Amino acid sequence: MIALAQRLSQLGPAGWRQRWSEWREARTQRLPIRDWTGAEGGSPTRISGFDQGLVWVVIGLLALGLVMVYSASIALPESKKFARYAPTYFLSRHAMFIGISLVAALVTVQVPVAVWERVAPWLFVASLLLLALVLVPGVGKGVNGARRWIPMGIMSFQPSELAKLAMAMYAASYMVRKMDVKERFVQATWPMAVALVVIGLLLLGEPDMGAFMVISVMALGVLFLGGVNGRMFLLSATMLVGAFGLIIATSPFRRERILAFLNPWDPVYAQGKGYQLTHSLIAFGRGEVTGQGLGSSVEKLHYLPEAHTDFLMAVIGEELGFIGVAAVIVAFFWLTRRIFVIGRQAVVLDRVFAGLMVQGLGIWFGAQALINIGVNLGALPTKGLTLPLLSYGGSAILLNLIALAIVVRVDIENRQLMRGGRA
After folding, report:
1. Which of 51, 126, 252, 393 is the most exposed place for a label (fewest CB within 10 A)?
2. What pTM was estimated for this model as a whole?
3. Under a CB-based contact definition with an 8 Å cutoff, are residues 187 and 238 in contact?
């Protein structure tokens, strides 16, 4: 032992570093590092890294949504319209939707991004066909004057949700394929413009102007992020705003909604087009800073229509107050920002399709959350858009989680590339 101690003391700092390097190299050879792509480029073994913060925020929003959907819908069976439903009907169905969607997300995260790049145009065509199919009498399901759903047994599928995901993929794929002509605006964008007009006509036929607005913003955002000339982008945005203005001006129904939004307390609108907005504002006013307490909303007791879907944020405001509303807004801000960071990382790694697609999905979540919260707060005209990850709805939850699973997959491949592996 004394002799061993003398030899170790004679090594010095340089000798210690050399011995440490030799030991690490020998241990690495005995215990090969296994990565999710497999050793020596073999078959995948396991997922070794992903954005856990993003996943936990999503789980937190899903859990809050489940609780608030139950709170907002528990009193619905007291009305004639829902008299045959149990108090837990919407809770159990929403939990079922979340379960199915989580399974779909786990399957989706196993699919390489290259596969989505190949099928992007075909997925977009499929979404257009489904949007046309929903308008066929006897096929599409109508609710409150809107025909937006296709009955599929345990749930009704809403093709406009698939169209949002398909648009993000198609726009990203298109910009990658047209990268060499993006400075020539007309040549670069006229097919996208035609696709947007077609999808707009189908959505306005339902009608679902809210979904059309989100899809339009996504398409325009991906074009801008893909490198379209700034002046042409401003021209496109101006034309799009003009088109929405023309649609509103030529539709008495939409024009009345705008007038009700400008003055919802007017007796002419308070019991008509402004009814939802006035009761939503009352709910926020009752909530104040800390809220009335979970389950203590009065507006959900048959005063506020669609409290468990489009106006769930009003129930959150009434029961959880400003603190609850601020927490939801911060969560969506963080989620959207994180999605954009992952997309930017993909672009830096020369994965342009993945980067543009993920940033398009970020625009989807950010824009839809902004519109829904703005409508609930009276900052925007009433639109039939749900709050992502929180509101009741099978199609919305399913496509939201599939889209986020694709974001996680892109993040996984980004991390693998940054570690020197292969995507």
Report:
1. 252
2. 0.83
3. no
